[in-house]
Amino acid sequence: MHSAGHRRGVVAAPHAATVEDGRAILAEGGNAIEAMLAMAASIAAVYPHMNHIGGDGFWLVREPSGRVRALMGAGRRGRQGDAAVLSRCRL
């Protein structure tokens, strides 16, 4: 496991190139979600068996207010899981 810190946060991944991509996003002023998306794209290139369309995601997101949200994107999408449902999550 590789990790890197920045004054705006910490990133960790099983590949150093992916960690550098996430750290660079934070260094440029990006937030944790943006860093995670960059890392997801990167890990798909270096470890395609670890991340792909249809893969699972488990996230803990701390909002600026201090509230922590747990997001789980695993398994099949439910019949009711459309854009309107997601927009009510207010992320």
How helical, in percent, are the residues? 25-40%
Count of separate DSSP helical elements = 3
Compute the number of structural domains: 1
Shape: globular
Low-confidence stretches: none
Portion in strands: 15-25%
What is the arithmetic mean of pLDDT? Answer: 79
Q: Which structural class matches the secondary elements? A: alpha+beta
The total beta strand count reads 4
Please report the distance between the alpha carbons of the first and last residues.
29 Å
Quaternary arrangement of the chains shown? Answer: single chain
Cross-sheet strand order for the largest sheet: 1-2
Radius of gyration, CA atoms, in whole angstroms: 14 Å
Q: Main β-sheet, in a few words?
A: 2 strands, antiparallel
**What is the H/E order?**
EEHHEEH
Question: What does this protein structure show overall?
Answer:
The protein is of the alpha+beta class and 91 residues long. It has one domain (2-87). Helices cover 35% and strands 24% of the residues. It has 3 helices and 4 strands, in the order ββααββα. It has helices at residues 16-27, 32-46, 83-87, and strands at 2-6, 9-13, 57-62, 68-73. The strands form 2 sheets. It has a two-stranded antiparallel ribbon with strand order 1-2. Strand 1 and strand 2 form a beta hairpin. The longest helix is centred in the middle third of the chain and has 15 residues, at 32-46. It is globular, with a radius of gyration of 14 Å. The protein starts with a strand and ends with a helix.
Quick description:
By secondary structure, the chain is an alpha+beta fold. 35% of the residues lie in helices and 24% in strands. The protein is built from 3 helices and 4 strands, in the order E-E-H-H-E-E-H.
